[in-house]
Specification:
By secondary structure, the chain is of the alpha+beta class. It contains three helices and six strands. The protein starts with a strand and ends in a 9-residue tail after the last helix.
């Protein structure tokens, strides 16, 4: 299942060339991830109270088209879980209203035990147990 949120590119997010600063793409992806988690019933405080925290291990962006101030986009977020792996992935697409894909982001993440500081061995199980709507997370 793919989840998405609308975002308006704001003037203070632009670089000196007048297009969206590269680091802000990461922020858009993170915003979509947390909104997906919230929609699935996992608020940040609930997640942290579980003793497990989310960690980004890798984030890759493919820039396709520039974004400029005032552009309206949707940022999609789909989770990918692989059996037997300690990591999982989020796939994002940032798409303009006219359907133009501006960027694609892939994030490799883990669920870290906040006491042992080690990756939780079965992150899908942990997310499934916390979520009110695990189907939004692809579980």
């Amino acid at each position: 299942m793919t989840f998405s949120v609308p975002v308006l590119v704001r003037g203070y997010e632009l670089d000196t060339q007048g297009h969206l600063n590269h680091a802000v793409y990461h922020q858009y992806g993170e915003h979509a991830r947390w909104e997906l988690m919230r929609a699935a019933g996992i608020a940040q405080d609930k997640f942290i109270a579980s003793g497990i925290g989310a960690v980004v291990l890798e984030s890759t962006i493919k820039y396709k088209r520039e974004l400029r101030g005032g552009d309206e986009v949707t940022v999609s977020c789909a989770a990918e879980w692989r059996e037997g792996e300690k990591v999982f992935r989020f796939h994002h697409r940032i798409v303009k209203l006219d359907g133009t894909v501006a960027a694609e982001i892939t994030v490799v993440a883990g669920a870290m035990d906040l006491t042992t500081r080690r990756l939780y061995p079965t992150p899908a199980d942990h997310f499934r147990a916390l979520a009110d709507r695990p189907e939004l997370l692809g579980l």
